[in-house]
Protein: DGQHR domain-containing protein
Amino acid sequence: MEENTEAGGAAAASSRPRIPYGRVAYPAIGFKMGRRQMVTTVMSPVTYVGTVGDRENWDPLQGTGTNRKEDKNHRQAIAKYIEETEDYVLNSVLVYYSPDEAEFVADDPEAPISMGTLYVRPGAKAKVGDGGHRTSAFGDVIEAHSHGDDVLRRLQENGQPVNVVLDDDQARRAQDFTDLQQNAKPLNASIAQSMDRRQAINRMLLEEVLKGERAPVFEGGKRIEFLTDSPGKLSPKLTGFKTLRYATGTLLVGTGPRSARAWDEAVAVEIATTGHDESLQKMVDFWTGFGALPDVATALSVPSGMVKLRETTWLTSANVLYALAAAVREVTHGTTVTITEAMKTAVTIDFTRAGTTFHGTLVEPAKYDDEGNLTAREKALTGRDAWESAAEKLAAKMRQR
Structure:
């Protein structure tokens, strides 16, 4: 019996995972993608930042790095998000260790996917394969709050998912990076913006203007496209949420902000300073007036009306909606003219494709030679300069009424 007991004890000892001596240990899950050992673990952001090396930009001639050129604005935006958003969420980062720097010991060596421990050599620095901007942003926030405060404590208590690849082949690391970018599909603007409830304009449009049915033109939101930025030519939708949002914000702040971030901030400040109720009323008055435009009202009253509206007028064009919103802002801001009054004057403006209202701004007219032969078809023009020029003409027409 004693011999059996000793044999059993030796067998049990030999089956236990080997523990590398003197290494930093992280609880992890091990698995493989292809032939390479992958490990997923979680560290606090503070710990994570201390485990990675300097940012390595891609240089194929020197054979270093996997990171693209740093976008400082993107880095700052992530840092601001982490700093100001308690319930933030970030994807996992991808890092690399060479096999002599780190080792995964599985609890069950026979299982293809197993709990276990990632052992990292003290002082070894991981190379960031994907997540350079997130890593730098964490570092910026940690440095800014190094004196110790609620933000730093939050980061010390939070977790950051880290996917580790045990691979020291730089060429494969670079291939991984480009594969990840090619296989990722970013959200279109309408989906992303309609999911973002932190911004007041999004909440107001979704919860009060659309779902609240304050503006009948949208039929409780049924006339807005959320899955793409622009409805198809046979769609019963009037416009995409991206267009609705930008036109509404332009109504509130005008054409001053020139970048997306500046625009977001200006709209948020405008709603905060003007007040929720007054800002909401401006939105409702504008879109109610838009629904009262003769061509729009007719389109809403008949089957396939939006298809005809799209074919015969410019009223579903994003650029025209931006121009109209900017014109109403110009006519009403700092004056006694109300948005409702301004929209009533817009009833007399010719928005049809057969008209000439937008010639020279949003429309390049068809051209004919001296004998009357068509030499160039009518062409729609896009871009900020085009719709801002159109807004000036629309504002002038409104003032004449």
Q: What stands out?
A: The longest strand covers residues 24-33. The radius of gyration is 30 Å. Residues 1-14 have pLDDT under 50 and may be disordered. The first helix runs from residue 2 to 15.
